[in-house]
């Protein structure tokens, strides 16, 4: 069971990750022929899962999504509002919820080792793509080939790189957080 200090620390880090996810959404590179841009928000979602685990990672993602749903400009391109959930990229946003839980659980099973984080990240992004591509297909009224060509295939190399970066960064960040926590309990 978490102590009060651990809960407070995790809540603060979850809020920090919600902010990082929001900033990552602003770094959006449009791809011609698709309404889905390349963004860094999913890298921060992956990292939140690896650092915070499934439940605090979920808190970070839900906080981010609620901020966007109420109209804060935290989604890709500085947009917000419930209408984003109904649009072609809404499935990706909704997919972040089960993905962060799955990544957090799988990462913890592997004791946050970088190679296990890679597998967890791939599984999580597969969940995001499942929701995202299905929504994209439904909203744009295209066949599966077109939905995959515009909502999945162009993003695979970049997402593999983001998973690798998050997987490599997570262990030293967790170690640093552990050392900070030990110092604060010893003080």
TrEMBL record:
The chain crosses the membrane at residues 12-32, 38-56, 89-107, 114-132, 152-174. Keywords: Cell membrane, Membrane, Transmembrane, Transmembrane helix, Transport. Its main location: membrane. The keyword Nucleotide-binding does not apply. GO terms for cellular component: plasma membrane. It is a multi-pass membrane protein. The keyword Lipid metabolism does not apply. It is found in: Cell membrane. One of its GO terms (molecular function) is biotin transmembrane transporter activity. It holds the Pfam family BioY. Belongs to the BioY family. PANTHER family: BIOTIN TRANSPORTER BIOY (PTHR34295:SF1). This is Biotin transporter. It comes from uncultured spirochete. The gene is bioY.
């Amino acid at each position: 069971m978490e102590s009060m200090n651990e809960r407070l620390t995790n809540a603060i880090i979850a809020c920090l990750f919600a902010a990082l996810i929001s900033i990552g959404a602003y770094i959006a590179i449009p791809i011609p022929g698709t309404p889905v841009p390349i963004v860094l928000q999913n890298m921060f979602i992956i990292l939140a899962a690896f650092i915070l685990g499934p439940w605090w990672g979920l808190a970070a993602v839900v906080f981010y999504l609620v901020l966007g749903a109420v109209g804060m400009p935290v989604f890709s391109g500085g947009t917000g509002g419930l209408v984003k959930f109904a649009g072609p990229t809404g499935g990706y946003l909704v997919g972040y919820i089960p993905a962060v839980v799955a990544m957090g659980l799988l990462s913890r099973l592997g004791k946050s080792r970088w190679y296990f984080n890679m597998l967890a990240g791939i599984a999580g992004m597969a969940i995001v793509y499942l929701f995202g591509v299905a929504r994209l297909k439904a909203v744009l009224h295209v066949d599966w080939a077109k939905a995959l060509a515009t909502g999945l295939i162009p993003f695979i190399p970049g997402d593999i790189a983001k998973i690798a970066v998050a997987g490599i960064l997570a262990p030293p960040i967790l170690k640093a957080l552990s050392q900070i926590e030990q110092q604060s309990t010893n003080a």
